[in-house]
Amino acid sequence: MKEIKRLLTLILVMAMLVTLAACGGNGTNSSPSPSDNSEENDTADAIQTVQEGLLIMGTSAEFPPYEFWEGESIIGIDAEIAEAIAEKLGLTLQIDDMEFTSIIAAVTTGRIDMGMAGMTVTPDRSESVDFSTSYATGVQVIIVKEGSEITSVDDLNAEGAFFNIGVQVSTTGDLYTTWDLEDEGFATVHRFDRAADAVLALLSDRVDCVVIDNEPAKAFVAANPGLIILDTEYAVEDYAICFNKESEALRDAVDAALVELIADGTVQSIIDKYIGTE
Predict the structure, then answer these.
(1) pLDDT (average), residues 169-183
(2) SS in 3 state form for 79-135?
(3) Mean pLDDT, residues 209-216
(4) Is the predicted pLDDT of residue 140 greater than 50, yes or no?
(5) Does pLDDT of 68 surpass 80?
(6) Are 85 and 254 in contact (CB under 8 A)?
(7) In this predicted structure, what is the pLDDT of residue 40?
(8) Which uninterrupted H or E stretch holds 161?
């Protein structure tokens, strides 16, 4: 019932925004504007009405440095960018931690307002959700044990090759290795709910390598002697925020705030804080 009320409220708010835009265009509004940013204020007010003052972000907080737990708080690149967006829109950010596989479903059912979890824009995902402007570039890499027979990406699909590959389920590492290797008969892809479980499988020789984003890969390798990251990249991808396709007003407002934060250097400073400028 709550989700139905929120959807009805969103429809009313969108109608209100259309009316406001029409009034602003024909010059019939004779009242002075309280600020030079009245249009932005109207949008933020509309979102506050829909979300009851909250911007609810869904994430999977085991993807350092983009999102991870520190004590009782979720921090990281995505968390700080989302906080900056919420502040710009006059909203309070709420972060809900969940399995990565649950994020798109939570967005499409309206349980959360947006998903932000180092999520790559793909054609399949774009059929279910809308995406914001990209705010970061991710690189998929391969983790192996020292001395592994896998020394480059090319080894994974060499003639006669067959490997067991560990991935976090539904991530782009899962998608790419499924398309490129498992479907072509070069590998069996072993899917784990958590990236850490894939790494544990590598350490115990249940898989031959793990395909994962470069930044969490660095953290796993630093914490586990005997593991290395291969020099060759598996894939390069763009990260963005996902939204319910029915939430155009929210998506546009968040995206406008994100674009401003990219332009003024805020997003890059947050990324540099966690990744550095090497």
Answers:
(1) 93
(2) HHHHHHHHHHHCCEEEEEECCHHHHHHHHHCCCCCEECCCCECCHHHHHHEEECCCC
(3) 94
(4) yes
(5) yes
(6) yes
(7) 54
(8) none
**219 neighbors 242 (Cβ within 8 angstroms):** no
CATH topology of domain 138-237: D-Maltodextrin-Binding Protein; domain 2 (3.40.190)
**Across residues 224-233, what is the average pLDDT?**
96
Residue type (1 letter), 59? T
pLDDT at 27 over 50: no
pTM metric for this prediction: 0.68
What is each CA distance from 256 to 39, 86, 148, 264, in whole angstroms?
A: 12, 12, 46, 13
274 token code pair: 């966690």
- Count of other CB atoms within 10 angstroms of residue 94: 16
| Domain 2-31+39-135+247-275 fold | D-Maltodextrin-Binding Protein; domain 2 (3.40.190)
Q: What secondary structure letter does DSSP report for 33?
A: P
Say how far apart CA 266 and CA 268 lie, in whole Å: 6
Q: What b/e sequence results for 245-277 when a residue is b if at least 16 CB atoms lie within 10 Å of its CB, and e otherwise? A: eebebbbbbbbbbbeebbeeebbeebbeebeee
Asked, colleague to colleague, whether 2-31+39-135+247-275 and 138-237 share their fold, the answer is yes
Q: Which residues contact 184 (CB under 8 A, 6 or more apart)?
A: 157
